[in-house]
Every structure is written in C-alpha cells, then in structure tokens.
Amino acid sequence: MTAVVLVRSPLRRATDAVVDVFTSPKSGPVMVTAVLFIAMYLAAGSLYKGFFSGQVFLNLLIDNAYLVVLAVGMTFVILTGGIDLSVGSVVALSTMIAATLLRDGWSPLVVIPLILVATSLLGLAVGLMIHVFKVQPFIASLAAMFLARGLCYIISNTSITIDQPFFVAMATLRIPLGGRLSITPSVIVAILVVVIAVWVLQYTRFGRTTYAIGGGEQSGMLMGLPVARTKVLVYVISGFCSGVAGVLFSFYTLSGYPLTTIGTELDAIAAVVIGGTLLTGGYGFVLGSVLGVLVLGVIQTIITFQGTLSSWWTKIFIGALLLVFIILQKVLTSRRT
Amino acid sequence: MASALQTRAPAPPGNPDPVIDMTGISITFPGVKALDGVDFRMFPGEVHSLMGENGAGKSTLIKALTGVYSIDAGTIAMQGRQVTFSGPAQAQAAGIATVYQEVNLLGNLTVAENVMLGREPHRLGGINWRATRRRAKEILQRLHLDIDPNSLLNSHSLAVQQLVAIARALDVDASVLILDEPTSSLDAEEVAELFRVIRDLADAGVAILFVSHFLDQVYEISDRLTVLRNGRLVGEYLTDELLRIDLVQAMIGKELSTLEDLENRKRSSEAGGASSVPAFLSAHGIARKGAVAPIDLTIAPGEVVGLAGLLGSGRTEIARLLGGIDHCDAGTIQVNGKPLKLRTPRQAIAHRIAYSSENRRSEGIVDELSVRDNIILALQADRGWFRPIPKRRQDELAQSYIDTLSIRTPDADALVRNLSGGNQQKVLLARWLAIAPRLLILDEPTRGIDVGAKAEIQKLVVSLAENGMSVLFISAELEEVLRLSHRIIVLRDRRMVADLPNENLDLDALLALIAEGSEADEQAGVTS
After folding, report:
1. Which of A63, A293, B68, B373 is most deeply packed, by most CB within 10 A?
2. What is the per-residue pLDDT across B342-393, written as a single tens digit (0 to 9) for each?
3. Shared domain check, B492 and B379
4. Is residue B13 within 8 angstroms of chain A, CB to CB?
C-alpha cells in the first residue's frame, strides 16, 4: 500500500510478469496447457513426416468439433463447481432422435430445433433437481445420464443409418480455405459456439455470476447476484450444447446408435480440466477448454502417426496428463492462499 | 434495571438530528427475548461502538437495523422519517451499508469486479470493463487504496480485502456504515490503515456503527458507546467519559454469589495445592498467529487455574492449544517435565489431557446417541475400535456416572438430545472423566444451564481438584472463576496481562485487570 516504487531492470520486470502469469490460479494452468500443446505439436512434427501439414491440424478440429461444443457446455457447469455426467448419453440420444425422425421423413428444419429444445429441457430438469431439491450435481446428472441412455434403447436397439440429403451434405461438404486446406460446416458451428460462449462468460452479468458461484455461492448471494437462476441455467446451457454436439456428431457419423459416445462426458471433463478450469469452480476459460480438446486430439493423432501403438494408449496418456494437471492446479492454488 | 436509570449521553455539539433513531426495539425468538425495549441512535459523523458480551443482543440489533429480522415492537427512524425494511436490499437502498465479519467477497474475481459486481456499466449489451475498472478505481481512491483494480482479490491481504468490502458497500451512497468485527483478523498495522479510512468517512459525515471485542480499538476509534446486556440496554455513553472499568462492569454486570461454602472449601484445599508440587503441565511462550500472543502457563496437580477475560480475549484459543485442537506456532509444552508436541486431540488424550469445548452442541455431545454411548465415547476411542468395551462394563460405567453426577435421565439408553443443557454438560463431563484425565480443560462448562446444575458442576470441579486433578477453568462469569480457581490468568486482547494467585482478589480488582491490564496491577493491590 505504500508508495515505494522499486526500481527494477526491464528484463527483471518482464520475467516477473511471466512468473506472475504462470503462477496465477486464473491463467497459470491455461498457460501450462498452451506450452504443453505447442511442445507436443512441435515434437510430433519433428518425429513424424507429414505431421506439420495444415490439414492434419484442421482435422483435429474436424474430428473433435462435437467435443469442443460439449467442452464449452461443460466449462459453464464446472465453473460453478458442478459437474454434468449426462452429456455423453444426451449426444447419443440426439443422434437417435435425429436418425429415427429423419427416417420417418421429418424435415431437418424441424428435427434439429426439436433436438435442441429436448436436450435443453433435460438440462433444465437436471438444474432444477440440483437447485430445488439440493441434489448433488453428480447424482442429478447421473440420473439424467441413465435416463438418456435408456431412452436411446426405447427408440431402437440397433444402429439407424441417416441418409437424409441435408445431413449427408453436411457430412461431405468441405469448405475450402485456400491451398489444399478445407474444413467442415461442423467446425464453423463449433467456432461460433466458442465465440458466443467467450462473450457470454466475459461480458454478461450471467457469465460473471457463473464465476461468482464457483468462487463462493454464499458470498455471491449476499452480494445480491441471481445465484439460483444462474445455477439452473448453466445446466440448460450444457444440455443445449449436448444437443448441438449430438447434431454435429450425427453429421460426422451419419447414423444413430444407442451405444455411441459412451464415456464421452469424461472426455469433455478431461478436456475442461486439462484446459485449466478448476474442478471446484471459479477459475477457467472457454478457450482453455478448446485447448484441452486440442491436446486430447493431438495425443490421438500422434498415436495414429506412430502406427504401432494401440489406440487405447490415448486413454493412458490422457489419464497421466489429467493426474499431472490436477496436482498442478492444487499446487498453484495452494500457493496463493 | 429500570429504564429510567439508563444513562443517555448528550448529543454531539451543534445538536444535529440523529441519522438513525431506534426506540423500544423488541425481538422475540421462540423461547428467548433477544431484544427487550432497546433504544439506539446514531449521529452523522460519529463512530458509535456497540458493546456487549455473547448473547447481549448486538448482532440481533444490527440485523433489526438492516432488515434481516423484523421487529416485534418499537420504531426505527432514519433521518427523522419512520422506516421499515423488509430485507437487507431495502436497507442498502436506503443508505445503510453493512460489512460483515467474514469478508463476503469473491477471491477468484478481480478487485474491480468485487466492488462493482451487479452494478457494472454496460455498453452494446455487454459489460463495459474499462468503465467498470475506472469507477472501481475512483471508489478505492476515496479509501486511499491504491491497488490495481484488475488484480485478483485473492492476491491481497485480508486488510485490503476488508477495505474492498467497504468500498463495495460505499458505492451505494451510504449515510450509515455498519462494520461488524472488521478487525478480528487484522494485524496492528492493518487496523491502523482501516481506522484511518473509518475516520475519513466519519469526517465526511457518514455515521459508523463499529462492533469489536477489542477494548483498545473501541477506545481508539469510537466517539460514543452503547452497551447491551442480555438483550437490554444498559446505557449510552460518550467514550471519553466512560472509564474502562465501568464499561467492563456494564458489559458483564454483577451477580450475587450464592455459593459461599464452595469458597471456603476451595480456600481450605488451597493450602495443599500448588507451589510445592511440580507442575503437571507447563507451557512456555506458546502462541498462535491471529489467535493468541506468547504466554507462559503452568498447572500443578490439584490446581484449578481460571482464565478470565472478555469474549475474544484468547481464552478459548489457549484452551484449544493445550487440548491439541490447534497447533502452536511457537513455544514449548512440557507434561510431567517431558517436552511434548501436541498435534492432535488424540495425542492430548493419550497424555491424559481432556478438552471439553464451549460449543456443547456442535463440538461436544453427539445428539443422536444415547447417554451411555456419549459417556463411553472418549474411552472407547482411546482404547481403539478393535477393543470394544464389553456391554456390561459400558452399563456399569454409564450408571456410575449417572449416579455420581446425578444426571437426570430416564435411563442410560435415552437420547442425549432429549436432556436439558445442564445434564448434557454433565454427560460431557462424564465422558472426559471416564478417561481419567490428569488435566481437564473446561471451556464455559456452565454456560446456558440452570442455577442448580451450575452449582453441581462447580462443586464437582472443586472435588476433582481435591483428588489431584488439574483443571483449567474458563468462564465468562467472573464470580465463578473467582470462586473456583486457585490461580487466575487474566487475558486481554489475546494477551496475558496477569497471572496471580487467587488470594484477596475480588471482583472489582479482577474487573480492573481485565479493563486496564498490567497498569492496574498496583491499583488492584491497593483495593484488596
């Protein structure tokens, strides 16, 4: 508080600033993930021929567009200190709804909005369970997870192929980016979702209240923030994002299958945590979660390039990485308090 | 105390109208009259301290003023107009800002956000961060707080966080600022900083309600004092005109001693106790940051040492250090001449030190268990869970304590939550006696229990000491401390101010010590 200004060399100041950024619980974990991502990318690039191709990078986005959207929804939930285990099943349910209704000749213009409304309502139900009945988020979303998975089997217990022209077009359409690079429409949708989420979290009262709940629900309430409404709404957002991810996933696979995306909720959670969002809430960024998805994607790609390792090694690496990140978060946050 | 006798200090010079004028405020909770016809007023530009021991009604009065509780009788006038607030939000809108003891802010957000959250200026549908930071900076500068509004709140000291909380409260143009225990977690320098801000605000015409149990701070900052006791108004005084000893007396009150015979018994056992025998426990310079300053303390077998002091003076904190609940930052503890590092209550129990908490309900009895289970709990834990006490032995133990302590319960199987407070306290005592402690630490064992049970517990303490047990006795009732203790340690503001044998000490001398500390040593000697 005193006005003593220490004279320090510019170099020293710069290193201090860097240390500050890396040890802050707010930005530290994200920065570490960014560094890790770049390091992995460069290492893989020098090891494997063709890894540095632009399309390999874009494929990361193409293959994981749905996971990016899921991770965005999950980020909202985890920022409040909650968890949503239902997203994987909800994606599967969305693909099932899409596949059956399209098979019965419904228009995609009806089917897609219907899916989004249905998954948002499911999210609303989870949110209300948590808020009104004070059910643990883990339990409430677990119930929704079983419910959604069960509904998949009610619709059909076998795979249903989607051959509706719009969906097929979405699956095959490539948007050229010049050079010989291209992306799919799903990538555009995912980027759009990310941009909107960044804006909402950073520039709206709802977004700031999301952070406030993670920082201290009681304090937020005493500060006069709409804690209850926000707490329910993050699950609606997660449900909505699951619906969007479900639609993107059905573009990607062109089928509805009740056994699909089992455990994907855990991939989304892993991506969010690796992306620097504190599991207890309060700290984290949507862009961090995107980075988390990219890290998962790069691991997968490296294993594909390596060629001899089984793809299950992806899980082992993700597991190890998660462990490291959770310990890192503990260290960073305890240093500050 | 008839209301006609209540003192009321004169209004400040210039006779301004009070900004807050509460008259005849009564609030009844089920079974308790929390406030009984209390008058309270605040003048603009004055710092007004609300004083009283636990349960005096301080926080109830504050909550009545801020609209958290609705009042059963009486009126509240603000700037001459009668008001009724149905919630804190309304009181805030009317210009009553409150900063609670716990800093209720969000450490994960920036300082600017904590000041402005919920009131951020918007632009193009989104929060205008630049304007938010600028506005926050302006408010912080009003408090002479030159920090980066964009820094995380967590990265600042508690004092700064406290000031940020005040900044947030002030953003709503407040004419009244309520500070509930704002200094309890601050160090001396931080307190000075806070006081500078409080004085500036008072100079600017804000009426400030200050609650603290640190007498020094109260005398340093406040212009006016209102003392409450047991939900009633004792009086309103100008700080300059009220001696500390009178304040302490007003806060604690006096009770007629009804247990003269105990006094005599204690005196007779005194000859045998203390001095000659080597200490059971001696502590040198034990301290814990933010809880208690370094203190030396010895207890001999058969000795009752009383801890006297106001609420928050460090009584319980010392007890918790010796009971192994909290760790000492410094100092050494010796038991039977051997050094001992106390890390857990379990270790303390292994050395036959038992701590009976002042929070009977939350840290003492186990509501859902029977009287018997509550009594054997510590003994069973001490034996380890793989050596269960045989059922017959349990029954014998429970019954023998029920008989000797005359615990009034239908039988040993009754749930302890159905017992009265005094009997619950006896069950708790039985639990600790069952492990045959060498040192029994009793923190407020007689609080909130009826007179009869109180007398029985006091008698028990005396006979335990007669049988060679050391007792550290803590009570807010000084008469009780005087009656039972061989030696009294006086604490003030988390510091030991005196350690004296209880010879020729009377209530007045003890009050003087509590109020004035060591400066009053001589005076105490003279009056006795």
Report:
1. A293
2. 888 888 998 999 999 888 888 888 988 999 999 999 999 888 888 889 999 9
3. no
4. no
Edge-to-edge strands, sheet with B73-78: B32-42, B20-29, B73-78, B81-83
Q: Mean pLDDT for chain B?
A: 83
| Domain presence at residue A23 | no
Q: Which range has the worst mean pLDDT, A273-277, A307-311, B131-135?
A: A307-311
**H helix or E strand, kind and range, residue B321:** helix B315-322
Domain that holds residue A196: 32-332
Q: Are residues B431 and B443 in the same domain?
A: no
Q: Do B118 and A282 touch (CB under 8 A)?
A: no
CATH number, position B451: 3.40.50.300
- Provide the shortest C-alpha distance from residue A329 to chain B (in Å): 14
Task: Give per-residue pLDDT as tens, A62-99.
Answer: 999 999 999 999 999 999 999 999 999 999 999 999 99
A225 vs B100: CB contact, 8 Å cut-off? no
> Considering the domain boundaries, does residue B377 fall inside one?
yes
Does the model's ipTM exceed the 0.85 cut? no
Model pLDDT, residue B381: 87
- For chain A, the residue count is 337
CB contact under 8 A, A205 and B146: no
Domain ranges, residue B463: 260-352+437-527
Domain termination site, one of B404, B435, B466? B435
pLDDT at A264: 92
Q: What is the DSSP string of B335-388?
A: ETTEEE---SHHHHHHTTEEEE-S-IIIII--TTSBHHHHHHHHHHHHH-TTSP
pLDDT per residue as tens digits for the range A237-272: 999 999 999 999 999 999 999 989 998 999 999 999
Q: How many domains does chain A have?
A: 1
B473 and B371 in a common domain: no
Half-sphere exposure of B280 (CA within 13 A, CB side): 23
B459 and B346 both lie in a single domain: yes
Which pLDDT score is estimated for B9? 78
* Any domain includes B317: yes
Cβ separation A203–B145 shorter than 8 A:
no
Tens-digit pLDDT profile for residues A96-132:
999 999 999 999 999 999 999 999 999 999 999 999 9
Name the pairing type of β-strands B439-443 and B470-474: parallel
Question: What is the rounded distance in angstroms from the CA atom of residue B183 to the CA atom of residue B185?
Answer: 6
- On chain A, the residues whose CB falls within 8 A of the CB of B146 are 1, 3
- Under the banding of pLDDT at 50, 70 and 90, the label for residue B502 is confident
Whether residue B177 is contained in a domain is answered as no
Task: Give the end of a domain, one of B435, B451, B471.
Answer: B435
Total domains in chain B come to 2
Look at residue A56 and tell me if it is in a domain.
yes
CA–CA min distance B191, chain A (Å): 13
Return the residue in B154, B178, B197 with the most chain A beta carbons within 10 A, the one to mutate for interface testing.
Answer: B154
Distances (CA, A) of A140 to A69, A115, A129, A240, B347: 21, 21, 6, 17, 42
Token pair 């790609």: residue: A301
Residue of B nearest to A281 (CA): B108
Same domain, B334 and B446: yes
The domain that holds A322 is classified in CATH as 1.10.3470
On whether residue A91 sits in a domain, the answer given is yes
Between A242 and B326, residue with greater pLDDT: A242
Whole-angstrom Cα distance, residue B492 to residue B488? Answer: 13
- Among all residues of chain A, which has the CA nearest to that of B106? A215
Helix axes B451-466 and B260-270, enclosed angle (nearest 10): 10
- Whether residue B117 and residue A212 make contact (CB cut-off 8 A), yes or no, is yes
Residue B15 inside a domain? The answer is no
CB B104 to CB A222 under 8 A? Answer: yes
Same-domain pairing of B465 and B509: yes
pLDDT value at residue A337: 41
The residue of chain B with its CA nearest to that of A3 is: B146
> What pTM was estimated for this model as a whole?
0.70
Residues B446 and B480 in one domain: yes
Whether A18 maps to a domain, the answer reads no
* DSSP letter (8 states) at residue A122: H
